[in-house]
Amino acid sequence: MSFVSINEYINSLDENAKKYGFDFENFMNTEFPQIVPKICFAMPMWWAGPKMYNGYVAVSAAKKHYSIHFHDENYLYKLKEALPNCTFGKRCINVKYGDEHAISIVKQAVSQYLNNIL
Fold first, then answer.
1. Where are the beta strands (DSSP E) in the chain?
2. Model confidence over 56-92: pLDDT tens digits?
3. In this structure, what are the phi and psi dihedrals at residue 34, rounded to the nearest 5 degrees?
């Protein structure tokens, strides 16, 4: 499915995923109002520069978790110790819905990551 806006993407999700999608979007809008999100690869992305390879954070939803994607795969290795209940994919961390502790740590990591490259 092709999405035009972040709201369209989030509104297409089930209620549980929608809650966390809007939460992450609000977090990004509050912490990084200067970054205009866009849909890329069918998911919401926040680019740190004019090109995707300058660095990005993205969010996508699944049935039991949502994923936060980072441009820098090595950055995720630092999070593995702090988040033993999460699973990791290529350039992403999968956070179970309701795991507020992990969500808090991931938001801190997103802030650190983007602040280091902006």
1. 38-40, 43-47, 56-61, 65-70, 87-89, 92-96
2. 999 999 999 999 999 998 888 888 888 999 999 989 9
3. -75, -15
